[in-house]
TrEMBL record:
GO MF annotations in UniProt: hydrolase activity, acting on carbon-nitrogen (but not peptide) bonds
InterPro entries the UniProt entry points to: Glyco_hydro/deAcase_b/a-brl, NODB_dom, Polysacch_Deacetylase
NodB homology domain boundaries: 105-303
Keywords, ordered alphabetically: Signal
SUPFAM superfamilies in UniProt: Glycoside hydrolase/deacetylase
PANTHER family: POLY-BETA-1,6-N-ACETYL-D-GLUCOSAMINE N-DEACETYLASE, PTHR34216
Name used for this protein in its record: Polysaccharide deacetylase family protein
Subcellular location field: Secreted
Length: 378
């Protein structure tokens, strides 16, 4: 039982701190471009959706993954007072799939893991506003009755009241971190087995197969996403910062983490609601696990290039910082001669929209593959 605290408390602190550093960069280096316009007039968020991700509520034992109850109440009141629509996750996915225009000022609320504080603290507050939300279930923790995790009875009570439950994997492994003692076939099998097990148990317990997967720790590569597709998930969710448009990739939908001290404050909360998605394609490098730390070029192609203010396009890479992008038609990139020092890195492409001055951005993750060990097939 005690393993839950190790898996989901201290280990989560690493990912939380890493994500917080990226968010800090966005606020310091990217947001100032839009703040000048916002000082004169609050910018209307327009057609786009922000997905919020929470973990714990009112549990100060784990400050990096917790949101104080008073702050959570303040955030929900902010959504109501500022006319944001809180829509179900399924509605968002259907809109992207069918290319239905998204509603203005829309938000989706998601919660990972299924801690007991979701039932005790968050649910009563969300019910009072009539807000729909989705809980991604850490299946093993629920099935083994880990401490601080909701029971199946709690889940069934909430499900009967209309709460949506989806998959967060069975074991909560760091699926994107390719174990060095596995070849590709073994790695794929390891991922597939864990996801299949979680999906199967949720189907047995909830009476239906889960449609959506939130990747544990938000860590992924192309193989993780391919295995998720093979199991049949309709959409996969990361923990990359950013907003959602109908151009978003259903297999890699970003969510804004709301947690900790600074990142659960109302100032940060309100700012993330005003970002928009930057539709891009042909990522450089792609989502494949990196075999070498030196990446000589980071870039992509940007859809609707004329929508952005000239000179505002730039690329941020973890550990390397932000650089203005070279623009060649719709191809934006930076060249690089420094090896990546971090095992996990994120690349963020950003620019300022001409019509609103708002920050548009898209982020993806890069993970170094460890040096291979000699692997013998069984």
């Amino acid at each position: 039982m005690g393993n839950c605290f190790i898996d989901m408390g201290k280990v989560n602190d690493f990912t939380t701190t890493y994500t917080a550093k990226l968010i800090l960069f966005v606020m310091i280096f990217l947001l100032p471009n839009t703040l000048l316009a916002e000082e004169k007039k609050q910018v209307d968020p327009g057609p786009g959706v922000t997905l919020l991700i929470y973990h714990r509520f009112g549990d100060d034992r784990y400050p990096t993954t917790n949101v104080p109850t008073t702050r959570f109440k303040e955030q929900m009141a902010y959504l109501k007072d500022n006319d944001f629509q809180v829509i179900p996750l399924g509605q968002l996915v259907r809109s992207i799939k069918k290319q239905i225009p998204l509603p203005d000022k829309a938000v989706v609320i998601t919660v990972d893991d299924g801690y007991k504080s979701v039932y005790d603290v968050a649910w009563p507050i969300l019910k009072s506003y009539g807000y729909p939300f989705t809980v991604f279930v850490y299946v093993k923790a629920t099935d083994k009755n880990y401490n601080d995790i909701m029971s199946w009875e709690d889940i069934m009570e909430m499900k009967a009241a209309g709460v949506d439950f989806q998959d967060h994997s069975y074991s909560h492994h760091r699926l994107g971190d390719w174990p060095k003692n596995m070849d590709e076939a073994q790695y794929r099998s390891w991922i597939h087995e864990d996801l299949s097990r979680g999906s199967r148990i949720l189907k047995e317990r909830l009476g239906r197969k889960p449609d959506f997967l939130a990747i544990p720790y938000g860590e992924y590569n192309s193989i993780v996403l391919e295995e998720a597709v093979s199991i049949g998930y309709e959409a996969v969710f990361s923990q990359d910062p950013g907003s959602v448009s109908i151009d978003s990739d259903l297999m890699l939908i970003p969510r804004e983490p709301i947690l900790g001290n600074e990142w659960s404050g109302i100032e940060h909360f309100s700012k993330v609601l005003h970002r928009v998605d930057m539709p891009i394609y042909d990522l450089e490098p792609s989502l494949a696990a990196l075999s070498h730390p030196l990446v000589t070029r980071f870039g992509c192609r940007v859809k609707d290039m004329d929508s952005y203010v000239s000179g505002t396009l730039g690329i941020y890479v973890s550990g390397l910082g932000w650089k203005p992008a070279v623009v060649d038609g719709n191809h934006v990139y930076i060249d690089n001669d420094k090896p990546l020092e971090r095992h996990f890195s994120r690349v963020t492409v950003s620019g300022r929209l001409k019509d609103s001055g708002r920050l548009a951005m898209r982020t993806w993750m890069l993970i170094q593959r460890p040096e291979k060990e000699d692997v013998k097939a069984n």
